[in-house]
Sequence to fold (766 residues):
Amino acid sequence: MSEMMTGAEMVVRALRDHDVNHIFGYPGGAVLPIYDALFQQNSVQHILVRHEQGAVHSAEGYARSSGKVGVVLVTSGPGATNAVTGLTDALMDSIPIVCFTGQVPTHLIGSDAFQECDTVGITRHCTKHNYLVKRIEDLPRIIHEAFYVARSGRPGPVVIDVPKDIQFARGVYTGPGEIIHKSYRPKMDGDTARIEAALALMAKAKKPVFYTGGGIINSGPEASRLLREFAQITGFPVTSTLMGLGAFPANNPQWLGMLGMHGTYEANLAMHGCDVMVNLGARFDDRITGRLDAFSPGSKKIHVDIDPSSINKNVKADIGIVGDCTRVLAEMIRIWREKKYQVDPEALKSWWGEINKWRARNSLGYENSDSIIKPQYAIERLYALTKDRSTYVTTEVGQHQMWAAQHFHFDEPNRWMTSGGLGTMGYGLPAAIGVQMAHPDALVIDIAGEASILMNMQEMSTAAQYRLPVKIFILNNEYMGMVRQWQELLHGGRYSESYSSALPDFVKLAEAYHAKGIRCADPAKLDAAIQEMIDYPGPVIFDCLVAKEENCFPMIPSGKAHNEMILPDFAGSVGDVIDAKGKQLV
Amino acid sequence: MKSHYADQTEKPVTERRTFCVLVDNEPGVLARIAGMFSGRGYNIESLTVSETEHEKHLSRITIVTSGTPSVLNQIEAQLDRLVPVHKVVNLSAKASIERELALVKVAQFGEHRGEHRMEALRLATAFGAKTVDATLNSFIFELAGPADDVERFINLMTAIGLVEVSRTGAAAIARGAEEM
Ligand SMILES: Cc1cc2nc3c(=O)[nH]c(=O)nc-3n(C[C@H](O)[C@H](O)[C@H](O)COP(=O)(O)OP(=O)(O)OC[C@H]3O[C@@H](n4cnc5c(N)ncnc54)[C@H](O)[C@@H]3O)c2cc1C
Ligand SMILES: Cc1ncc(C[n+]2csc(CCOP(=O)(O)OP(=O)(O)O)c2C)c(N)n1
Ligand SMILES: [Mg+2]
Fold:
């Protein structure tokens, strides 16, 4: 299957060969030949974003919600530099992206030509891998390799920088075939002896816990299914990171809720007090561990991760297993059954007894009001009114993101898209656009803050152009709430530059973008307003005016251990809780 | 307050480690490796590269680095996950040979000139260094050997009149018949 064609045609043909139906991009001089090739075919639909950062976040939302590779096309120079935040976001959250960037013709590289930048140099640190194509002969191989690298092992973004003369050059195109990469071959199967050692440890556990993460989602829906099965046959409690929400159903009694800085009391105390911790596809991030030397001091730790560098990076694992979650879980379940393992039922029962006492503290509780909408209440109602539909949620970054993680519940994987590692304000709207492209009939909601949403507001135009009925649900507290909360807790309530002044009228803004605007400030009218949003067939900006100075609890203050959490009923001055060392942390 | 972890109270010991890295000789591969070290705050004591298998486009990079054992293990894992890296070997964990080449320029001026010239030559002989250039008041010595020897030689020459040094950094290989 080889054929003569131009480099630009190869790009489009390769997209087809990799089953790509949608790409997100923005044109410019250095990619015109590729745009011309796109114009002359119908199998790949291009979605014109309004900013290249938006293109990458859209591709991330598309990828995370569908399990496919997200594809981006941008021009040289400013097109490439605008994509950098999105690429870094995808790197931190392990999202598979292939991003084509235009480049000045090869003979001009290095001459400070018009719209030239050192794209491979700039993106080397924010991609899993990147390529500069110097010869037309290399182009097909590089594209096939890029798709392989982006989706295999620990997924991530890959940049292919294509000079304009290469796009015009003619050469022989060969299809992907079976890609055998020269050096990159991630290990998929876990070591059997280690799996057996891990199971023997688990079988003797008295206070076990599953600590699951984004790796389960990365591994695909089968991993979520296996996790459910394994949890069922072992009876262990399950908690998850922000990135893993949905892998285990929130309506299952074994679910402890999210763990970490804003996780539940029961999840964090179970982590602190467990004797065997089984980490499946999570990376011991600092939002999880808190103070490292006080992190789960009495436990043996089993860590399953496809990336060997994740194991022993932050926390020492007693048994590290390098492999894919699906394969390792399948093997664990098989051997557990074969050996007829069972944990001591009395011990497990008393462990659940302890957990249920922590649960009874109701750490996600809050004081509701009938005069003002509490942000937690708004999320609760949004969840209640949408849970029986096919709903996908994206978020921006801040308190609203944490309230969404705490009060919106997920029973399926790939339904929750959020910027966890980089924490990129402006992620949610473009991501929602990507999700809606992948799931045209679903209800897609961006849970937003009034500050974050302004960072990529221009993407409303994209939503309007493609008639994407995304719903932007703004918890408008007139503050960069998460910043304000830290200033209250750590900086004596001096709210330096964290007030959202001169906000636009979001209802009028919606109308300017051909969308519907809804505003609600009255808890009694909230349900009807949310219903109106859901029922409207086009994009909506919902300006939900909420309590302005609400804090997001529970919270493990920086530099503190899991058992030093601040709960919602905390009455003292938090400034006194965090010491000088803690204040230096982020 | 007493820490839960016993080993936290002990001062972490740093050590040196030599890694041999086999990579695809593609453009930017060196920047990728050097950038990984700087981006993650690791030390590079020395780094040498050259293409060793032309037909296969493979280059061999020798990196001498230092850190605590856990940092060094992390460096190994981080090297290994770079896409163009074929293989990483921790040579410090094996019987291996490490050599470095140095060009050392010494010059003698002033009252002890004669004595210093004699001493420089005597030391060069003792270390097995070659004299590759000489003028009436200077020498250039070429010394190949373990980094420690090179280090000692340079220290001694400093007392005599060191002008300048050029060092290649370490090249290293495991002993025995086995391939890396
Ligand atoms: C304001 C803010 C507050 C936050 N607060 C919290 C909080 O309270 N709690 C919380 O949990 N997070 C919180 N986060 C998110 C946090 O920063 C991290 O992004 C998150 O905890 C990391 O999740 P993870 O460990 O699941 O790893 P991910 O980043 O999802 O990484 C996945 C891991 O799985 C591995 N992996 C990938 N694919 C596979 C596979 N197929 N098989 C096996 N392993 C695989 C990867 O190598 C990696 O180690 C917050 C973020 C923000 C912005
Ligand atoms: C691009 C970017 N800049 C700055 C920050 C730091 N930051 C984190 S949360 C936050 C405030 C977000 O405010 P808003 O969107 O209103 O959300 P709220 O916390 O009020 O819910 C800021 C500025 C960030 N995460 N991303
Ligand atoms: Mg806000």
Q: What stands out?
A: Residues A 93-94, 154, 213-215, 218-219, 241-244, 258-263, 281-283, 285, 287-288, 305-307, 310, 324-325, 397, 401-402, 420-421, 423, 482 surround flavin-adenine dinucleotide (ligand 1) (CB under 6 Å). Chain B touches chain A through 23 residues (CB under 8 Å). The two ends of chain B are 47 Å apart (CA to CA). The longest strand of chain B covers residues 96-107.
